[in-house]
Design a protein that fits this description.
- There is one protein chain.
- This protein has about 475 residues and is of the alpha+beta class.
- It contains 14 helices and 19 strands.
- Strands 6, 10, 11, 14, 15, 16, 17, 18 and 19 form a nine-stranded mixed sheet that branches.
- Helix 6 crosses helix 14, helix 7 packs parallel to helix 13 and helix 12 runs antiparallel to helix 13.
- The chain is elongated, with a radius of gyration of 29 Å.
Length: about 475
């Protein structure tokens, strides 16, 4: 039997002893609990002398035991809830009837106590308990000495342990919630309404990505988990919903990396009568509100750099950046292909615009450290985007980059049904694996008339990574996809 198995057996035996004492080791409802952060704040306002206890200052607190010190007939426990830690003082004199159960406590157990606030002789704020309730017996010991899980794979695989053992991890996910709520609040301030579109789609589209495929038995049809909500949100513009957004879970059957998870969260939005310049303002606005809700500082560390999110962000033309960092012009296809060969990019049989973009990705993107909008992309790689009025080879599209990572993608939307249909046909003729069939209903929707619009998608996992200084996307997704053991 391993050491951990032996410890589990010992804890199971203690659970049985609790039952023999008439104590349910798995507790039940426990009302009127005060969070530890609230209790600590109250303690700061009290004029408590070391070793003193205030009879009138009572609290009821519950949480997990993270530290235990037994001193004869006195037990000190550090108890942790979702807001922090608080010391409990349990004495045999005050809890004589509960003392046999208290002696069976282990690290990781959940308990609740009522008592008076006071301080120990060393000045530590303490809840001196006069009642005790067992709430849950933990059968597995926590990570050694509460230093937390160090093995990265174990942290992601056993996130529930990671969260209670490493308070900074919980803080990241609290901040994630704050950031996403700020994005919602910003858009609602801008008169958008939040909607929900299908995650199961008979035709996938809205991005160049490979889908997950499934089958509906009753209808006997193939369905796809969405790679993007784009084409459904645009249908809502046709229907007269002029400003819409969705915080959506999307699924792309592609690789894993520090920047990619097959299941991810994004906010996608569309605004009638706007263009990609308005979408730049939306990215700046939602990011600024998220920062305001966090701590208000637009200059934020990320790894070894400090990123400045002050508005306005830098705006750089795609072609200018390509010439600056790759030394070639978008218009000089031969030079671009020579550059691709130098970079060991396989470009045989690929569309010129695709080769241009691969050279751009390889030579430019890693230089885009400070928040930057890169605008006016090659039209051939943007089938859903309106063309530049002075150059049909340019699409009115931008991508937002921070620390060399794409954060968002936006268009001045294409609303000409004939051009859209031709673009779809061109994709199909090229046997693009990311487009399986023509979405005729979307073309029909455009034929009914979609107003000119701006559209934007922002990767919320990546936004959280950047604003919380998290190195990997798996650090900001509660349960990232893991390879089976």
């Amino acid at each position: 039997m391993s050491t951990e198995e032996k410890l589990t057996e010992e804890r199971l035996a203690k659970a049985e002893k609790l039952r023999e004492l008439g104590v349910d080791p798995y507790g039940g409802r426990y009302d009127d609990v005060t969070r530890t952060a609230t209790v600590r704040k109250r303690g700061e306002t009290l004029k408590l002398e070391a070793g003193a206890m205030v009879e009138g200052e009572r609290a009821r607190v519950a949480g997990r035991i993270v530290l235990q010190r037994v001193m004869g007939n006195l037990v000190f426990l550090t108890v942790r809830d979702g807001t922090g830690d608080l010391q409990f003082g349990l004495s045999k004199k005050a809890l004589r009837d509960d003392w046999p159960a208290i002696k069976l406590l282990d690290l990781g157990d959940f308990i609740g106590c009522d008592g008076c606030l006071g301080k120990t002789k060393t000045g530590e704020l303490t809840l001196w308990a006069d009642s005790f309730t067992m709430l849950c017996k933990a059968l597995h010991p926590p990570p050694a000495k509460w230093h937390g899980l160090k093995d990265v794979e174990l942290r992601y695989r056993h996130r529930y342990v990671d969260l209670f053992a490493n308070p900074p991890v919980r803080e990241v996910f609290r901040q994630r919630s704050t950031i996403i709520q700020a994005v919602r609040d910003y858009l609602i301030r801008c008169d958008y309404i939040e909607v929900e579109t299908p995650a199961l789609q008979p035709i996938y589209g809205g991005a160049a990505a490979r889908p997950f495929t499934t089958h509906h038995n009753t209808l006997d049809i193939e369905l796809f988990l969405r790679i993007s909500p784009e084409l459904y949100l645009k249908r809502l513009l046709v229907g007269g919903m002029e400003r819409v957004f969705e915080v959506s879970r999307n699924f792309r059957n592609e690789g894993l990396s520090t920047k990619h998870n097959p299941e991810f969260t994004m906010v996608e939005l569309y605004e009638a009568y706007a263009d990609y310049n308005v979408m730049m303002e939306r990215v700046e606005g939602m990011t600024a509100l998220a920062i305001e809700r966090l701590d208000g500082n637009p200059k934020r560390p990320y790894g070894e750099v400090v990123l400045d999110y002050s508005v306005p962000w830098s705006r750089r033309k795609y072609s200018d950046l390509l010439e600056e960092y790759a030394g070639v012009s978008m218009a000089d296809v031969a030079a671009v292909r020579r550059k691709a060969s130098e970079l060991s990019i396989d470009h045989a049989g690929k569309d010129d615009a695709v080769v241009v973009n691969e050279v751009f990705e390889r030579t430019v993107e890693h230089h885009l450290i400070q928040p930057t909008f890169v605008y006016d992309y090659p039209a051939a790689v943007c089938p859903l985007t309106r063309r530049h009025p002075e150059d049909p080879n340019i699409a009115l599209r931008f991508e937002a980059f921070v620390n060399g990572m794409e954060l968002g993608n936006a268009y001045t939307e294409l609303n000409d049904p004939r051009v859209q249909e031709a673009n779809f046909k061109r994709q199909l003729a090229g046997e693009n694996e990311t487009m399986a069939v023509m979405d005729e209903d979307f073309i029909l929707a455009l034929e009914y008339g979609m107003p000119p619009a701006g559209g934007l998608g922002v990767g919320l996992d990546r936004l959280v990574m950047l604003l919380t200084n998290s190195a990997s996307i798996r650090d900001v997704i509660l349960f990232p996809l893991q390879r089976p053991r």
